[in-house]
Automatic annotation (TrEMBL):
PROSITE patterns: CLAUDIN. It holds the Pfam family PMP22_Claudin. The chain crosses the membrane at residues 6-27, 79-102, 123-141, 161-184. InterPro entries: Claudin, Claudin_CS, PMP22/EMP/MP20/Claudin. Belongs to the claudin family. Claudins function as major constituents of the tight junction complexes that regulate the permeability of epithelia. Keywords: Cell junction, Cell membrane, Membrane, Tight junction, Transmembrane, Transmembrane helix. This is Claudin. It comes from Silurus meridionalis (Southern catfish).
């Protein structure tokens, strides 16, 4: 029926992926100021995230400001926020469902087929949550790239990818891998 080792690896990968999604969503480094052009003044680095923007000065001082109004935010930033939160919630739900259906748990042991299908359903839910996060990260990245290569964007306001978007991408791909392992372990 189901291979408990593969299920456990899928569960652990998904758990680490969800942690990556949460960390990536909370961190303010989704995009950071790009030091391009002739200007060599790099005393201030600007970071922007889903929830706040920060300025890091060469003296080591970091100042962050939470976005005041949801209405003033760009619609793509609002959509990215929503997709990341939905992805996290769906992934957590999928992890819970998968946990109930895993071979190594004692919940519902009387029906092995139903238990295996429950684990597979949890894997599918994890894949849906990861897809939501991948869409959010990729959409945000597309907007950063489009603004960077726009000739009308002033050089001193260009941004490039920050660390948080890579953490969120990594978390979502771990979710995909974990969900796929959970689905593949219950294919009979």
């Amino acid at each position: 029926m189901a291979n408990s080792g593969v299920q456990l690896i899928g569960f652990c990968l998904s758990l680490v992926g969800i942690i990556g999604l949460i960390v990536g969503t909370v961190l303010p480094q989704w995009k950071m100021s790009a030091h391009v052009g002739d200007s060599i003044i790099t005393a201030v680095a600007t970071y922007q995230g889903l929830w706040m923007s920060c300025a890091f000065q060469s003296t080591g001082q970091l100042q962050c400001k939470i976005y005041d109004s949801v209405l003033q935010l760009d619609s793509s930033l609002q959509a990215t926020r929503a997709l990341m939160i939905v992805g996290i919630i769906i992934s957590i739900a999928g992890l819970g469902v998968a946990c109930v259906g895993m071979k190594c748990t004692t919940c519902g042991e009387e029906n092995k087929v139903r238990k295996a299908r429950t684990a597979m359903t949890g894997g599918i839910i994890l894949l849906i949550g990861a897809l939501s996060a991948i869409v959010a990260c990729s959409w945000f990245a597309h907007n950063v790239i489009r603004a960077f290569y726009n000739p009308y964007t002033p050089v001193n306001t260009k941004f490039e990818f920050g660390a948080a978007i890579f953490i969120a991408w990594g978390g979502s791909f771990l979710d995909v891998l974990g969900g796929a392992l959970l689905v593949a372990s219950c294919t009979k």
